[in-house]
Write a structure and sequence with these properties.
190 residues, mainly beta, seven-stranded mixed sheet, 14 strands, 51% strand, globular
Length: 190
Amino acid sequence: MKKDQKRFHTLDIEYNGQGPFTAVSEFRTGFSLTLGTHTGMDFFTFSVNIAIDKNTTKHYRLRSVLPGDRFRITYDGPNVDTGTTINHIESLDRIEPEFRILEGMRLGFDIIEGEERIRLSHPKGGGMSLMLSNVPLDHARVAVSAGNDDESWSWQQKDLYAGDSLEIVIVSTDWTDAYPCIERIVRVDT
């Protein structure tokens, strides 16, 4: 094996049974993924950022991810050559979704890891986001944050190593399973 051979990292994303759509980068911080929503939105947005070279980053997104939508994300999976490149995921975007969240409900998602399934959401009047990045050299870090004007919630998910997968199902809910790490926001009038 050549010593100067580059090591590429991959992220395979399946969306509602389509794909996988593959993101590839040779950089340690080569890609990041965000799934987020905030007050007033009846949908999540999904974005993937990929470092092409030291000066160029490509951005791909889905603007309207709705309850019932599913993702399966695999970090550094085997090269089975059955997918397509990440830019094709945008062909599945909904331009104007026909969905309104019911009164008293809010958006959230179920994270499925093997047999374990947890539901995460956000405080009333707030928003949330899931972030995944390959910042560490040998794995991807996954974190979820949520909050409103009064408090900030956070959850650290299991790291993904080569071949590990994470499934996410978008839900409309009025609760969360896992008790988050909560930080109260103190306002100081000046």
